[in-house]
Amino acid sequence: MGNKAKEIIIPEKGVLRIIFLYVGQGDSTLLVVPSEEEHKFVLVDSNQDDSLGGINIVKLFKDLFKDEDRKLDVYINTHPHKDHLTGIKDLYNEVGIKQLWHSGHKPGGEHKEVYKDLEYIMKELGEQNVFRLRGSREENKLDEEKIKLGDIDYNVLAPADYVSEEIEDEKPEERYKRIHEQCGVTRFKYGKKEKQILITGDADYNAWTEHITEYHKDRLESYVLSAAHHGSNSFFWKGDPEDEEPYLEHFDRINPMHIILSAQKSKDS
């Protein structure tokens, strides 16, 4: 009997496949990355929302890796909010994770509990397998070394070191307000006729206007855009959209052919 998960998810040799998983109110993106003769598996964010019929990610990977001794190669967390991180501990314990990339944000309030799961995995993996996302004009900058992600290239656009350092020094209530400003934004690119996929997490108006658009203006253009904050208007407006004009410079520079909105319905987001 064939393995349906493998049939659907794993492409032919040399092909990069991006799968935007439906996880209810939340984000989760699976990259099946060509790497020499096989593929690596990279998951950006996770959620487990049974109330809205979200897919069970742990079961998905168990099916995908059935009869194989392998783990998820990289887990990337754009920021530690529940709808981008729920299920990570089960994923680590039941499937396994080789590397963890994260934004460096330390949340408060209702997100403290799920952040403990992230801290648990950091401790289990050890410093040699945990990397903080660092927005830079240097190619592929994670900590002080370059890390190749299979056969594809990528740019980490945010958060910049100075943003992380500034937010880390603030009081918990101020950090809580600025988590989307300290959100991981990464552009993956591949192909003889290169195409790009921009994963934006929940990066908000302040992140784009103050830290990303001008600094990275020549590396924003992307064939596919995963819309920030599930398609929320916080991508375009600082406050009340009825009182101001939308900010569009970043959107014009991204110039996407396809846009992914992860929210099922606006009332659920």
Write a structural description.
By secondary structure, this protein is α/β, with parallel strands linked by helices. Helix content is 23%, strand content 22%. It is built from 8 helices and 13 strands. The chain has helices spanning 4-9, 57-64, 88-94, 112-125, 161-168, 172-177, 205-212, 249-254; strands at residues 17-20, 29-35, 38-44, 72-77, 97-102, 130-132, 141-142, 145-146, 153-158, 185-190, 195-199, 224-226, 258-260. The model has no long low-confidence stretch (mean pLDDT 91).
Task: Explain the layout of strands and helices.
Blueprint: H1 4-9, E1 17-20, E2 29-35, E3 38-44, H2 57-64, E4 72-77, H3 88-94, E5 97-102, H4 112-125, E6 130-132, E7 141-142, E8 145-146, E9 153-158, H5 161-168, H6 172-177, E10 185-190, E11 195-199, H7 205-212, E12 224-226, H8 249-254, E13 258-260
Parallel strand pairs: 3-4, 4-5, 5-6, 11-12, 12-13
Antiparallel strand pairs: 1-2, 2-3, 7-8, 9-10, 10-11
Low-confidence region ranges:
none
Give the strand line-up of the largest sheet.
1-2-3-4-5-6
Averaging pLDDT over every residue, what do you get? 91
Share of residues in helices: 10-25%
Supply the helix-strand structural class.
Answer: alpha/beta
How far the N terminus sits from the C terminus, by CA atoms, comes to: 39 Å
Beta strand %: 15-25%
The beta-strand count equals 13
Per the principal axes of the C-alpha atoms, what is the gross shape?
globular
Helix/strand order, N-terminal first: HEEEHEHEHEEEEHHEEHEHE
Radius of gyration: 18 Å
Q: Number of helix segments? A: 8
Biggest sheet, in brief? Answer: 6 strands, mixed
